[in-house]
Protein: EamA-like transporter family protein
Amino acid sequence: MPSVDHLTGEFVHGGARTTGGFAGTLTASLREGSEMMFSSVKAIEKGALTRSADRWASRTISARLGGYTDSVRIAEDISLAIPDEKTGLLGKADERDLLDYELTHGPPLIKWIFPALLCALSYALYNIFIKKGSYSIHPILGGVILQFVAAFSGTLLLLFLLARGKSSEIFWDKWGLIWSVGAGLWVGTAEMLSFTVSGMGVPATQSIPIIIGGSVLFGAVLGFCVLGEVLVLHGWSGVVLLTLGIGLVATDSGDKMEEGGGGGDNVDAPPTYLWIGLSLCCAMSYALYNICIKKGSASINPILGGVVLQFIAAIFGSVLLGGILLEGSKLNADQTGIVWASLAGIAVGSAELLSFGVSGMGVQATQSIPILIGGSVMFGAVLGIFMLGETLELQGWIGVLLLMSGIGMVATDPGEKMPGH
Structure:
């Protein structure tokens, strides 16, 4: 009597084997399906969900300055190469989850906080150098000189990369250039408004808290409205501490080095509503400058972006300077003022380059802007003691502590950002 081989689905009769109709076909199909499933699992195990090691490296500040960016483009970076064959499918899924988390929450704090604080230090040195040279050069002339120095410094760095055969790393597209130009126009506008407020006879202890504190608040609000980024209560509490700290430091009654050198006449303080309105417009311009950097950072090499915005701001300042000369005003300047203005240009050029780099790492604007601005005030207060001989009273040191606390709270805020910026 014939029997059925259940392993192969064939009839066995007298040593002869024949295919067995429905049972044989079903068994063969199940066997074929099992083999295909096994092959698919092995293929996935070999890295279908693996992300290349270069992708992790491109999140660092050194990779950003070298020309790599991946803050919004990810599909082409998914690799089928497996770095370690002992790594299982679960490990690949965890790695992909980490990528998704990084794209919605930004990179880990340890990757970006030190470049951000270095950027804040550069901004603080920029303000210190401006203050050192304020007696010896007209402020608008000094601003034009520092922007051209910053632009040429960035150009030299750009040429250095090209000389090393890194031309492929100098990437840009239309929107990257547009946002860089926008950043240059906004920072030029902010400087013009700042000079205007100072020229109206408003004390620096009043105008500086309004301008800097306002830019922190506007930056957080614009990050939410324009970029779709979100701060939770933890982060907003940090913004409040930053604002309070800035106000306490700026209005501290300790000894201050007087600013001057503009050659203008002393005038009575203008109506409060007028100078506060102009100061808030200046703060908004600084915040929009940072937003433009954030929007363009994924589409242009940070060095190239910094050079573009610096030249735009310098040209904008030159137009303003030309208007002053046409009015018959005299521009005072000496060698000391030019030297300090040039050093300020190097400092602000470094700060703008680092700002592009930090933004390109995927850091939320609602986190980076308060830290860059609040950190610069904190470093400025400390550097003012050693470089300018200024002193802080108890109120000022309380402000410094509030700034440090605010920086920590904003930097560790768990809020999310919209991908694509």
